[in-house]
Write a structure and sequence with these properties.
The protein is an alpha/beta fold. The protein has twelve helices and 16 strands. The protein binds pyridoxal-5'-phosphate. Pfam families: Aminotran_1_2.
Length: 396
């Protein structure tokens, strides 16, 4: 019997496949350096873990309200007020099973078949696949190294059609590490206000910004606040990827749509994780700052080393934990005579011959680039980038 035809247009997450491949090779005893992970390599801070343990011991282990307990929603409301200067009430908040789930809920709430979603490239690889699964159409807008991998107001304006439902802005960005400044966001505001489209503002890397940069949200612009759907969560800031808590702040009509979908598809997020997330967001932020500053050191190291590789150019990206080097071009050949014509060829060659794993840029809509995650030790960064250096030195 035929399955859902839409599945034929969807590819499984390449990064998760690569992580599995690296683990397999490591289990076979190979000395592989993996730069693929999209998660902090730190443990969840102790006081957060303790609050999960307390939740279990207190038997807080049952279903909760579909889009989250009031305690956590209230904590999110005050976080948005104090940290982002955003006024919301609990009616504007929905808690989900990770920010990925927040985004899929939002897309399902927004999209009628054929609606267009504008996605600047490079993009987080799940966006277009989720849009397809919701029977929407992704309109990918390529950005360039010169624009810092950020969409301009002109590009946004040109991409909008009568079918446009939303644009996804992800700052700090995965995979480029780019962070939109206050002025850059301001320049998009007029176009967004005029067109009336929704904005999905994916702010999951909010706390990971460097060089004294500050995170801004499009929801901070009063003219468009009601059009903006803020997505955030605890995975990246608090090293809590496995706890699966994300959240949305938006107009009540969006929250009601999300609540309908979530109550029928998944019920509430994990009760224990909600308690831990409440502690993470409302408790001391000292551990977050420690992790942030370690990431900044690693970013500096990785950038310095990559910058020395002839044939590569790499921005010192101010956010998230990724660098996104760009190659001069392909048409190269390995010493074994294998042609390198794409980021996929390049990543395969680096894995097979030099035992270093990067994510090919094609997965993010930019074939000239590859992504490295520096959520790994100084030692691994040095060893892995030396291998990348050797790999490039051998190409003819
Ligand atoms: N948004 C972006 C840009 C991401 O990179 C990720 C995770 O890699 C997510 C959302 C999803 O985060 P979560 O683990 O909370 O589902």
């Amino acid at each position: 019997m035929e399955l859902n035809r839409t599945l034929d247009q969807v590819t499984p997450s390449l990064t998760l496949q690569l992580v599995a491949k690296v683990n397999d090779l490591k289990q076979q005893g190979k000395d592989i350096v993996g730069f693929t992970v999209g998660e902090p390599d730190f443990p969840t801070p102790q006081h957060i873990k303790q609050s999960g343990i307390d939740a279990i011991n207190d038997n807080f282990t049952r279903y909760t309200a579909a889009v989250g307990i009031n305690e956590l929603k209230d904590i999110i409301v005050s976080k948005l007020k104090t940290e982002n200067n955003l006024e919301y009430t609990a009616q504007n908040i929905a808690v989900n099973n990770g920010a990925k789930h927040s985004i899929s809920n939002v897309l399902m709430t927004l999209i009628n078949p054929g609606d267009e979603i504008i996605i600047p490239a490079p993009y987080w690889l799940s966006y277009p696949e989720m849009v397809t699964l919701c029977h929407g159409k992704s309109v990918v807008v390529p950005t360039t190294k010169d624009s810092g991998y950020k969409i301009t107001a002109q590009q946004l304006k040109e991409a909008i059609t009568p079918k446009t439902k939303a644009v996804i802005i992800n700052s700090p960005n995965n995979p480029s590490g780019a962070v939109y400044s206050e002025q850059e966001l301001q320049s998009l505001v007029e176009v967004i206000a005029e067109s009336g489209i929704w904005v999905i503002s994916d702010e999951i890397y909010e706390k990971l910004v460097y060089d004294g940069n500050k995170h801004f949200s499009l929801a901070q612009y009063p003219q468009i606040k009601s059009q903006v759907i803020v997505v955030n969560g605890v995975s990246k800031a608090y090293a809590m990827t496995g706890w699966r808590i994300g959240y949305i702040a938006a107009e009540p009509e969006i929250i009601k749509g999300v609540a309908k979908i979530q109550s029928q598809f998944t019920s509430s997020p994990c009760s224990i994780s909600q308690k831990a997330a409440a502690t993470a967001i409302s408790g001391s932020q000292d551990e977050v700052e420690k992790m942030r500053s370690i990431f900044e050191d690693r970013r500096n190291l990785a950038h310095d080393l990559l910058n020395k590789i002839p044939g590569l150019s790499v921005d010192k990206a101010p956010g998230a934990f990724y660098l996104f080097p760009q190659c001069e071009g392909y048409n190269k050949v390995t010493p074994e005579g294998k042609a390198i014509n794409s980021s996929l060829d390049l990543a395969d060659y680096m894995l097979e011959k030099h035992h270093v794993v990067v994510v090919p840029g094609k997965a993010f809509g930019c074939d000239l680039n590859f992504r490295i995650s520096y959520a790994t030790s100084h030692e691994q960064i040095k060893k892995g980038i030396e291998r990348i250096h050797n790999a490039f030195a051998e190409l003819r």
